[in-house]
Amino acid sequence: MHPAADSFHIAKMFEDIDDYAIIFLDTEGNIDSWNAGAEKIKGYTSNEVLGKNFRIFYTQEDIISQKPEKMINEAIRNGKALDEGWRVCKNGLRFWGSIRITALYDDHGELIGFSKITRDLTEKFNTQTAIEKYMQKLEIQNKELEQFVYIASHDLQEPLLTVSSFIDLLKEEYSGTIDPTGEMYLGFIAQSTERMRSLIKGLLDYARLGKKKEVGMVDCNALIEEVKIDLFSVIEPSGAKIICGNLPVVKGFATELRLLFQNLISNSLKFRKKEVSPVIRISAQPTRQGWQFSVTDNGIGIEDRFKERIFVIFQRLHNRTDYEGNGIGLAHCKKITELHGGKISVESSPGNGSSFHFTLNLL
Ligand code: ADP
What we know:
The protein is an alpha+beta fold. It folds into 3 domains: 3-120, Beta-Lactamase (2-Layer Sandwich); 122-208, Helix Hairpins (Orthogonal Bundle), CATH 1.10.287; 210-363, 2-Layer Sandwich (Heat Shock Protein 90), CATH 3.30.565. Helix content is 45%, strand content 23%. It has 11 helices and 12 strands. Strands 2-1-5-4-3 form a 5-stranded antiparallel beta sheet, sandwiched between helices. The protein has a 5-stranded mixed beta sheet with strand order 7-9-10-12-11. α10 (254-270) runs antiparallel to α11. The longest helix has 52 residues, at 122-173. The protein is elongated. Bound molecules: adenosine-5'-diphosphate. Residues 263, 267-268, 271, 297, 299-302, 310, 316-318, 325-331, 354 line the site of adenosine-5'-diphosphate.
């Protein structure tokens, strides 16, 4: 035994510790000893509490529900009793304590009392509660925003449909009576309504992502094969090569994951260098929480300063005459990876292709 580990030195050490309230109770729960930490946390001096029942630290509700007695009984039954909860100081204020009560026995196995160690976790508890409240508020605001986007985009479809129908009617019933300039204007209106229709559809799809939330096991190899079939009409004429390692089976939302791969692959096909056939490599690496995927192309690349912006909805780096699109694809990809607890980012240098990396964490 260490020379300082006799009962005198240990008792002295307990007295001095001031971050923990360390007290001893007799078999009835009356206070036998009191240290500096107990005075600091609970506000009583030893003279004020010695001999009193430890019940005085409990709230009125806990006293009524006999929590102190239950803690003691549990310590007798299991050797120890643990709890976290509000306790009361001398001045009536509450603190959030982490409590451990241990039953103590003599050499003959006779119960001689209890040790009770309390830590004041009020600050940690308050920070935790503030974070939780903030998260709840954010979640409500997000839900409201999603609801708004959903309703707005859903309702906008109807008047748009009316505009398109009347353009068609005008063209049909007044053909020959409208002069070429009028025809041209009608053409512009029709093009713009078509574009608005596809923007609204994109927005509606965005709001719908993950709404059904059907989690299943998704074989990414099979999924890529399906995407290749869907994109055949673009892959074939471009002479594109899509090279996949052996991809994993992941737990996730099948429809959304397909959309994620489809968006990334079709972007790689779209933003290719004119004179070079696209080569797209798809790979996956296990991570501690799931998988990291990479979709790498040999396309036009992206400037460093746009690496965040491209994931924002409706943000595009080119005009529509150079490259078709709405600026919704990567916003979808971001939302889908986040639905899977993951993140998406891009590594690229202009002229040298891009690598989109995203993680899917275990759901
Ligand atoms: P869209 O493809 O409809 O323009 P996205 O949200 O999919 O919209 O992409 C946003 C922008 O990011 C694109 O307009 C393009 O400028 C850039 N981008 C996306 N993928 C690639 C890629 N593989 N290579 C180069 N640029 C890309």
